[in-house]
Amino acid sequence: MKQYNIDILALSEIRWKGVGQEMLDHGHMLLYGGEDNHHRAGVGLMMSPAAYRTMLKWTPINGRILFARLATTHTKLSVIVCYALTNEMDYDIKDSFYETLQAVTKNIPKHDVLCVDCDLNAKINENGALLADFALSNDLVVGGTLFEHKNMQKYIWSSPDGSTRNQIDHFLITRRWRTSLLDVRGYRGVDTQSEYMLMIAQIQIKLRAKRRHSNI
Question: Which among 24, 119, 165, 203 would be 20 to 30 A from 186, CA to CA?
């Protein structure tokens, strides 16, 4: 995180059981939510010490969705980390995931900057339609479509043999705050210990430290 000047890092498929938070090296905090009985799915949010001091609350919804709210100078920043199901899964199960995601989104104050980040397993297929409907219903823009980059900087996932590449991770932000989003791109050469590249979204919003935060 320090090398790339990242304050908030969304994680998916961490496969930790249960819910909790853990202090890591250099004061970084990891918030995570997983399934109770299985080492599968799981989402997390890693925060720099400066970002963690601005957190107002965080809520692990289930093993695929986590919510956190932070203070900024002029408004609040709401972050949803999610790990969607793959396209071959049953439609009803995927629809249930988006219903839960919509319920979380609906309770976020309208004046907040809303960012939805992580592995949405969505490209131009059934999952892509679900993602597009979710974005349209909540007045969100898909950040990866706004900036011109080389294909190698757009593809976030590649098969182990390197023959197939896809852009299935996405960053969404409230349309009203679209001008605060400076860039979204993938970075090659980062050791993520998986087939995924590191995706970084640059947002120009000044965080403001709060004395208290809570987990609800």
Answer: 24
Residues of the chain with pLDDT under 70: 118, 120-125, 145, 149-168, 188-196, 210-216
Q: Which 3 state secondary structure label does DSSP give 153?
A: helix
| CA distance linking residue 188 with residue 79, whole number of Å | 25
pLDDT recorded at residue 119: 75
Q: Are 81 and 10 in contact (CB under 8 A)?
A: yes
Instruction: Give the dihedral of Cα atoms 182, 27, 84, 127; nearest 10 deg.
Output: 10
Q: Coil, strand, or helix at residue 162?
A: coil
Per DSSP, the three-state class of 128 is helix
| pTM tops 0.85 | no
Residue 162: count of CB within 10 angstroms of its CB: 8
Predicted pLDDT at 159:
47
The Cα-based distances of 113 to 67, 95, 147, 165 in angstroms read 13, 25, 20, 31
Domains, the chain, ordered by start = 8-208 (3.60.10.10)
CA distance 187 to 195: 12
With a CB cutoff of 8 Å and minimum separation 6, the contacts of 91 are 126
